[in-house]
Amino acid sequence: MKSLNILIIGGGIGGLTSAIALRRDGHQVTVIERDPTWSVYGVGIIQQSNVLRAAQQLGILQGYLDAGVGFDAVEIFIPSGQKVARIPGHPVAPGLPSNLGIGRPALHKLLGDTTIAAGAEVRLGLTATNIDDTGQAVTVAFSDGSSGTYDLVIAADGVYSATRAQVLPQAEAPEFTGQAVWRYNFPRPADLDALQVYNGRTGVGLVPISADLMYMYVTTPEPDNPRYPTEGIAAMMRSKLAGTAPAIQALAEQITDDAGVVYRPLEGMLVRGPWHKGRIVLLGDAVHATTPHLGQGAGMAVEDSIVLAEEIARAADPETAFAAYRARRFERCRYIVEKSLEICHGQIGKGPPVDNAQATAEMFEVVSQPI
Ligand SMILES: Cc1cc2nc3c(=O)[nH]c(=O)nc-3n(C[C@H](O)[C@H](O)[C@H](O)COP(=O)(O)OP(=O)(O)OC[C@H]3O[C@@H](n4cnc5c(N)ncnc54)[C@H](O)[C@@H]3O)c2cc1C
Questions:
Q1: How many angstroms does the Cα of residue 26 sit away from the middle of ligand 1?
Q2: CB-based contact 154:7 (threshold 8 Å)
Q3: Is 203 in the pocket of ligand 1 (CB under 6 A)?
Q4: I want to staple 64 with a disulfide (CB 3.0 to 4.6 A). Which of 55, 96, 207, 340 is the partner?
Q5: How far is C-alpha 2 from the geometric centre of its chain's CA atoms?
Q6: What are the φ and ψ backbone dihedral angles of 7, each rounded to 5 degrees?
Q7: What pLDDT digit, counting tens, does each position of 167-214 carry?
Q8: What does residue 281 show for φ and ψ, rounded to 5 degrees?
Q9: How many CB atoms lie within 10 A of CB 351?
């Protein structure tokens, strides 16, 4: 299919990488984003070798490398602070790092600027209030009273996808895992040249995201799914780090700014049935939201975007394209969602403990395979 008019619902990582891929194929692309400020929170994200390969395919590799910081290994520590493993990554091409840490705002700016420069229209503060697939086209009514008609609609509207609720009402819903994550930015120590993972019931990670910045993530069991008020949340995060390795407790003393703490209950969700209906297809967290234990959620969304664009280019009709896209993506996304959840459950005693070093090495092997 060529020269289609495509609507993308959601201007996050999946929506924007789709827009970039589809503009490269010459389609007309409109992205609608609910958030009028189109902003993301300030901590970082890990992108592994498969995402750098995908960035290369999208023509944005140099932007990624400039906006983040590459590193080649994951180091595993036991709760006492002793390092027990250093796992090399799988660079996908000579000269490329195996992993990249990047601030979410820096990544958002890269993808947003590239999307706009590629010629996609981005409309902010807008949702779809009605989506009507006539079989020949999709007519969409928007929250500002306007409407449009499109050949295809791609829903990249995240884990709570309103489009999923409308188009695939029987699909799985996100489930709270019993664990939450706390994140905070710190100055990056000069010798931090890897993702450092401290195992334990309270899990901690240190992720370099620029020459002078890193972020800490802390996973804690939160069986009652509490909501913590912003006031006092820095002290609460500090208290969660009591009993962790000495190096982590030393860092904990610097957690003083309530507004700098990003807290999030962790959920998982995998749509096991079709990922499309008619001319409307879903992508990214809208169909496979993973807990972050393998650092691959955004990676899966970016890979989805490339595969979906390839299948749209190859197929003669939407049904064939969307079925082929899901067939190519399901197994890898299932692996990431289920393995991440296993690690999560092992950490909080809901399942047998998982060897993190082995799981990470296996994940690198899986995602280094072609998409
Ligand atoms: C704590 C945590 C840590 C993570 N760390 C990593 C990591 O290190 N590495 C990694 O690869 N992944 C990580 N992830 C996963 C990653 O953040 C997600 O997989 C990724 O953001 C999914 O992208 P998406 O575009 O599908 O959804 P989202 O990023 O959720 O984007 C959806 C967009 O759609 C918009 N939207 C929602 N509803 C509507 C609507 N009705 N109309 C219009 N717009 C709408 C939203 O405002 C948003 O901009 C992490 C996730 C969590 C929770």
A1: 26
A2: yes
A3: no
A4: 55
A5: 29
A6: -100, 135
A7: 999 999 999 999 999 999 999 998 899 999 998 889 999 999 999 999
A8: -130, 150
A9: 13
- Pocket of ligand 1 contains residue 333 by CB under 6 Å: no
The per-residue pLDDT for range 54-112, each reduced to its tens digit, is 999 999 999 999 999 999 898 999 989 999 999 887 787 777 888 999 999 999 999 99
Give the integer Cα–Cα distance in Å for 338 and 73: 23
Euclidean distance between CA atoms 219 and 182, whole angstroms: 6
H helices present in the chain, as ranges:
13-24, 49-58, 61-67, 104-117, 162-167, 233-240, 246-252, 297-314, 318-347, 356-368
For residue 183, give the ligand 1 atom closest to its CA.
Answer: 1
Q: At what angle do helices 13-24 and 104-117 cross, to 10 degrees?
A: 30
The closest of 163, 141, 140 to 150, measured between CA atoms, is 140
- Residue range 259-286: mean pLDDT, rounded: 98
Q: Count CB-CB contacts under 10 A for residue 124.
A: 13
DSSP designation for 176: E
371: which DSSP letter?
Answer: -
Find where tokens 């749209």 sit: 312
Distance between Cα 22 and ligand 1 center (Å): 20
Residue 56's beta-bridge partner residues? none
Testing ligand 1's pocket by substitution, the residue of 161, 285, 337, 343 carrying the most ligand atoms inside 8 A of its CB is: 285
- DSSP one-letter string for 179-231: EEEEEEEEEPPTT--SEEEE-SSSEEEEEE-SSSEEEEEEEEE-TT-----ST
